[in-house]
Amino acid sequence: KQAEKAVHQKKEQSKTKCRKARRRHINLVAEFNHRQRKNIWLETHIWHAKRFHMVKKWGYCLGNSPTEKSYRACYRAMTKQCLLQDLSYYCCLELKGKENELLKQLARICSIDTGLTFQEASCLSGRFEGSLNLYRADRYPEDMLGPVTFIWKPRDGSENRQLWIWLHPALKQDILRELKAIFQCSEPEEICISEPVTASVQEEKQVEVVMSLGNKRKKEDKEGEKAVPVKKIIGDGTRDPFQPYSWISRTTGIAISDRSMEILRYRLIGPLSHSILTGTLKAASVQTV
User: Fold this and answer.
1) Which of 36, 71, 114, 220 is 20 to 30 A from 235 (CA-CA)?
2) What predicted TM-score, i.e. pTM, was given to this entire model?
3) 156 and 25 share a domain?
């Protein structure tokens, strides 16, 4: 009887999937997206999660401190080689419209007394990135909003320009509210409800096959609905995925778009940063039609 019982237990245990089967790509993507419902991951999250202590700040999951004593290695890289930092959690606001109208309204939230402004010639041409402090409209030197960096898209012969403003996620809501106020952007440009993208038909069939082969337990969320594998969660840690991310002004024609987590941002520190960039990035050949 004991021998029969042992054989029966072994058969029951064999039904459970091995670690390789549980860590298949489709299952991992669904699990990762399920874990990003409250805190969004950066593109380099998996690399950092294996080497850093992760913290949850500003709606993101960020690497705070390394698990090993790598301070000397980081210092050596900054002084002699190159060190890369992932700053993709910084928010990006995109402004489109006529150059004169953009500069006229942006001059209300900054001052020449603090240094550079959006009208700086070197920055206005799009060759260099500028940095300044923003204030509430016509309230300088009071009611400071915070520091930002900006870069203009180079001119293409048209009077319409494109401006990207990078800011810390803790300052995003206040600065976005001020920009919409000075440009009178209160109406959404279009219905921008970015729901999570569901998996393709082929992936859904693969999931059904996996379900049928092994009696896999289906995960359920807080509402009790069955979780559906998705490719990627749209949105960022500072914006609800069901909120609009683009606004336009009917009077000035200025359009404001929230490009957070759509444009990745990295910082290279060290004497070999320029040589690494030139060796990594290849210039495309210009083709004229």
Assistant:
1) 220
2) 0.70
3) no
